[in-house]
Amino acid sequence: MNWGWIWANFFSGTDSNTGIWGLTLDHLSLSALPIVLGFLLSIPLGYWASRSRVARSVLLSVFSLLYTLPSLVLLVVVPVALGLAIINPANVIVALTIYALAIMLRSSTDAFMSVPADIREAARAIGFSSWQRFISVELPLAGPVLVAGIRVVSVSTVSLVTVGSFIGIDSLGNLFHEGNESAFPTEIWTGIVAVLVIAIVFDLIITTAGRILLPWNSRGSRRRAAKRELAEAVA
Questions:
Q1: Are 156 and 199 in contact (CB under 8 A)?
Q2: How far apart are CA 23 and CA 36, in angstroms?
Q3: What is the mean pLDDT of residues 211-225?
Q4: Has residue 147 got a pLDDT over 80?
């Protein structure tokens, strides 16, 4: 590793003239929005798919097919469909949102299908409306599977953003492209490490948010619940 090159090009000086830090910020912005949009869109679609066999079959088939499309192909098709310039960052956001939704939709569907029917019936019996049942019962119980799904989406999205550099959209993928063209391994390894750091940071944010929003799913809570069940069984 050429540490002098990294320091000299951290804020400016790469071929893209934005520096490693600038490319990192571009990568962050292009990653975060598709992850959030994919998650939010998967909630109503996954809930619908969990309640309708026809919807489940159609939605999962369509998005599974979309996910099989190579990323470069999708990055060329999206601007044609939307009428945007091919180097518009919105193309990457839309394409990665499609990929994120394709992954997250199956997790969301499984999450809502995992909610026991007797719990839904109990909520209905005590007078919960459909909306109250969804917000207060089904969504919290589906939470652990949703968190697991968005963690996969996060890693996938952060890595796929690099492909945008091949059509002229700035990201850490620029370092891969430029480093390969100039046969300069330091630039390539810098890009790899930076992408890994972003993926780790996003995963830490998601897992921390999951622990805060779903405290009953923490390891300590599960251990205490198991001890209570054991004590009751012994008594």
A1: no
A2: 20
A3: 64
A4: yes
Domain ranges for the chain, please list them: 18-234
Q: Count the Cβ atoms, other than its own, within 10 Å of residue 86.
A: 13
Contact (CB, 8 A) for 31 and 158: yes
> What percent of the chain is modeled with pLDDT above 70?
89
- The pTM score is 0.85
Spatial separation of the C-alpha atoms in residues 103 and 119, rounded to whole Å: 27
Chain length of the chain? 235
> pLDDT by residue (tens digit) across 32-64?
999 999 999 999 999 999 999 999 999 999 999
Best CA proximity match to 169, nearest among 15, 26, 24, 20: 26
SS3 for the chain is CCHHHHHHCCCCCCCCCCHHHHHHHHHHHHHHHHHHHHHHHHHHHHHHHHHCHHHHHHHHHHHHHHHCCCHHHHHHHHHHHHCCCCCCHHHHHHHHHHHHHHHHHHHHHHHHHCCCHHHHHHHHHCCCCHHHHHHHHHHHHHHHHHHHHHHHHHHHHHHHHHHHHHHCCCCCHHHHHHHHHCCCHHHHHHHHHHHHHHHHHHHHHHHHHHHHHCHHHCHHHHHHHHHHHHHHHHC
Residue pLDDT, tens place only, 119-129: 888 888 888 88
18-234: CATH architecture: Orthogonal Bundle (1.10)
> What span, in angstroms and rounded, lies between the C-alpha atoms of 106 and 42?
8
Q: Is 58 left (phi over 0), alpha (psi -120 to 50) or beta?
A: alpha
Distance CA 47, CA 102 (A): 14
Q: What angle do CA 98, 189, 152 make, to 5 degrees?
A: 30
